Amino acid sequence: MANQGLLKRLNMARIMDAVRRQDNLHRAAVADMLGLDRKSVTNLATELLQEGWLMETGVRHPRRGRPQIVLGLSRERHYHLGIHISETKVVGLLINLYGEIVSRRETSYAFASSLNQIGQAVDDVFRSLQDIAGTRLQATGLTAPGIIDDQTGRMIRSVNIPALDGVSLRQLIGRHDRGGVVLEEASRAKALAEKWFGQGRHLNSFACVDLGIGIGAGIVTDRRLHTGTNLGEIGHNIIKPGGKICRCGHRGCLEAYISERVICQDIGKCQGGEAQTLAEVGPLCPAAEDVLAQAGFALGLGLAPLINILCPPLIVLSGNLTNFESFVFPEMERGLAQAALPWSRRAVSVKASTFAPDTAAALGAAAAAMNDIFEVTTNT
What we know:
Blueprint: H1 4-21, E1 25-26, H2 27-34, H3 38-50, E2 54-60, E3 68-73, E4 79-85, E5 89-95, E6 101-108, H4 115-133, E7 137-144, E8 147-148, E9 155-157, H5 171-177, E10 181-185, H6 186-197, E11 206-211, E12 215-221, E13 224-225, H7 255-258, H8 260-271, H9 286-309, E14 314-318, H10 325-339, H11 342-346, E15 349-352, H12 357-374
Parallel strand pairs: 4-7, 7-10, 11-14, 14-15
Antiparallel strand pairs: 1-3, 2-3, 4-5, 5-6, 8-9, 11-12, 12-13
Helix pairs in contact: 1-2, 1-3, 2-3, 6-12, 8-9, 9-10
């Protein structure tokens, strides 16, 4: 016999997701779309209206029959908070059920800062946004780059933020909101942002590759994000055996060639300056353009195994490196031509994300916190 409570939650989530995906839906249209009994949908929608998850947004007047009341998600009753810890700052976003940004806060610190400095930045951002949300805050998502133990929430290893190694991440904000903190790895969080609000929102399967100081990947199949402690470490695939030393200790990793930090250092050697991120890089000299072209070629070699093994219909590239598409993408294609199977390459579209990198990660953290509102799994 089916668990009636679980069945109810499943159907409520399906109704919420249907309303989120398509405007101007009324109760009967939702029932027909989902293959549910119209009376059941009416009862569940009434409960969602009473709890402030749905709202009546207008009336449709068909040529025949009674007027139809249009449903929408409540934009002001339920908020979710996403916090992203990066190598140089903490970014927080408060979003509503449509993924619209209600408020944003960020606090910067130096590269390789201490745990106390990072923790204080997290605390400042969290407190500020929590004060704005008040009782409307439903849950908080926290994301950071590295290998996170899914069972304990402890950071096993963060190559580029070593201060987080061994840290129980929930403790960074746990004294405020322990029960409502959802953790996700940064690259996978960006995939969630694309799934719910970006270029993957209408696709069943795709991959998102994070091109930052660290390089990682989030993979979505049949609308489910692949999770697991060691998944998505595409940056530590070796593209040149015996090549450049990587911060992980191996030689020839993709990350050793296309990390934003490495590229900025190489550009600085060409034309001076001490840019910490590619967003700070100004006009380029020919030698700097060549640095970006070489990074593009290495990126193509690194993406080829993902294409050959999974062949997702779309790969979204997230990161400041995509700001230099005219230098990077042609050489990326050359790398793909050398390493990807031609018929697999033709089946895959590679596009730059429309989100700024830090926004994508924080947005994905918030999406992780709100995930079970729109999707309920049978083992939840």
